[in-house]
Sequence to fold (139 residues):
Amino acid sequence: MNNSLKLTALTLCLSLSACSSEGNADNAVKAEKPVQVAPTKNSTPPPTELSKGSKVMSKWYTGTLTFIEIEGGFFGFVTEAGEKYLPLNMPKEYLKNGSKLKIYGHHDKDIMTIQMWGKPFKVLDVELISEGKNPHPNH
Fold:
């Protein structure tokens, strides 16, 4: 056998051996029973659950809907605290420049937008405080 063939055979044997030992390690982990923890009243999720993003925290924000003239124009929501959100599914009847709103929802981290303005925000509920003037400030 030449050296190239020997090296290929050795690499193949090592690869198969590594796969076999990984499979055994997986089986050993699966055999363990998960530890059950009794939930406490009003407890926050364990840090591992929060880091996975499995818990979406929705809340109310009060602010102003503003028409932003970038990338063809879109509506942004600026909270009273100055946070910028890009409302993704705002009902059309609220799309008026300068509307004061309370919106309920959460920052959607799984969405990318072309606007590059504010955090994408999934709107779940809207309360009108005061209506804006018109859909776009130049109309």
Summary: Residues 20-52 have pLDDT under 50 and may be disordered. Residues 3-31 form the longest helix (29 residues).
